[in-house]
Amino acid sequence: MEFSNRIDMTTHGRKRTLVIMAKAPKPGGVKTRLAQSFPDCDVTELYRCLLRDTLTLARSLNGVEIAIMTPQSDVDELTEFVLGEVPVVAQSGEGLVAGLNSVFSRFAADGARGVIAFNSDSPHLPAAALERAFDELAECDVVVGPTHDGGYYMVGANAVHPGLFDNDGMGTSSALDNLMSRVRDLRLSVRIAEPFYDVDVAADLMRLDAELQLFPARAPRTAAWLAEW
User: Fold this and answer.
1) For FRET with 5, which of 86, 133, 150, 175 sits at 20 to 30 Å CA-CA?
2) Counting Cβ atoms within 10 Å, is residue 5 exposed (0-12), middle (13-18) or buried (19+)?
């Protein structure tokens, strides 16, 4: 599979790859916790905007390869969604833990690149936060970006670390604690990035709406959709 030509080497000799964890934007298949408060059609359209803005954020990074990791069943639809401009890779197995394991086994196996798995619903994250995370991977084994609800919005590594995501508890308030426990068990060095928030529940969406009313350029498609919604 060919990647884009946006390839650069850091001063430490490692390539950089940002892998967006995503699903095909179809009703009932995305942001299921948010769908408990809003109609499926609205949640699906919001997710489309979040994903497009996430891709824009990814493209703004200097010298970073971009890919999308998704369940096998979503590959064709997501490939069409991104118009073939970004490689869409099928994960092995089902669920987020399988997806994360697939990210690093697929992209970090050679040990020659820094790889960050990034969620698809934090396009309002400052690009500098991702740049810093890649820089920190030159000095540690793992970098983690925690969310305020006990999860994490990104995790990065330079190599495959078997067992890193065992008993991860993704999607729960214990996800970060479980990950950090595995980091300690595996005796890996870790850097913690700045805490941030993703959009999982109604309160998160209201917070994002308030932020984008003030700073719409942080996620312009999402801001425009929310303004009309």
Assistant:
1) 133
2) exposed
